[in-house]
Amino acid sequence: MDLLLFAIFLLACVAAGATGALFEPGDWYKRLEKPGWTPPDWVFPVAWSLLYLCIAAAAARAAPLAGSGYAMAFFALQIALNTLWTPVFFGLHRMGAGLIVLIALWLSVAATLVAFWQLDWLAGALFVPYLIWVTIAGALNFSVWRMNSATPASEGA
C-alpha cells in the first residue's frame, strides 16, 4: 500500500470527522429520548477512529488500480455525505434531514464497498464494518427522530 495515498485519504477522513468537534451533540442531544440500545458516548469516537483507518486503507488500496474511476467517485460521494450528516443532525437539529443524509450515505457506502470489492477484495472487506456502523447509525437516527417527533427542531426534514 502506498503510504502517501493512505495519508491523503486519512486526512480526508479526519476532515470529515472534524465536524464532530465543530458540531458536538451537546445538551440538545442529551435531552432527547433515545432507545435503550444507544451505544455509550465513548463508543462513537473509538468506532469512528477505527473506521476512518479502515476507510483510508481501503481507498489507498483501490485508488491506484486500473478501472478505479467509479470506485473513487463513490468514495468521494460517501465522504462528502459522511461530512454532511453531523452539521445537519447536531448543528441544525434536523433529525429528519439527517435521516435522509444517512440513507444516501448508506447507499454510497454500499456502492463504494461493491466497487472496491470488484477491484480488490481486501479494500471491499475493509468497508464492511463501515456499512454495519452506518446501518446502526441509521437505525439510531430513525429511532431518535421517531421518539422525539414532537420536538420542534425534528419536524419535517
What would you say this structure looks like, in words?
This protein is mainly alpha-helical and 157 residues long. It is 76% helix and 0% strand. Helix 1 runs antiparallel to helix 3, helix 1 runs parallel beside helix 4 and helix 4 runs antiparallel to helix 5. The longest helix is centred in the C-terminal third of the chain and has 25 residues. It starts with a helix and ends in a 10-residue tail after the last helix.
Question: Quick summary of this structure?
Answer:
The chain has 157 residues and is mainly alpha-helical.
Give me the secondary-structure topology.
Elements: H1 3-22, H2 26-31, H3 43-62, H4 69-91, H5 95-119, H6 121-125, H7 128-147
Helix pairs in contact: 1-3, 1-4, 4-5, 5-7
Q: Secondary-structure element sequence?
A: HHHHHHH
Please give the count of helices: 7
Helix proportion range: over 70%
Which spans have pLDDT < 50 for at least 5 consecutive residues? Answer: none
C-alpha termini separation: 41 Å
Please tell me how large the radius of gyration is.
16 Å
Roughly what fraction of the amino acids lie in strands? under 5%
Provide the structure class.
Answer: mainly alpha
Q: Biggest β-sheet, characterized?
A: none
Q: Calculate the mean pLDDT score and round it.
A: 94
According to DSSP, the number of beta strands is 0
Name the shape in a single word.
elongated
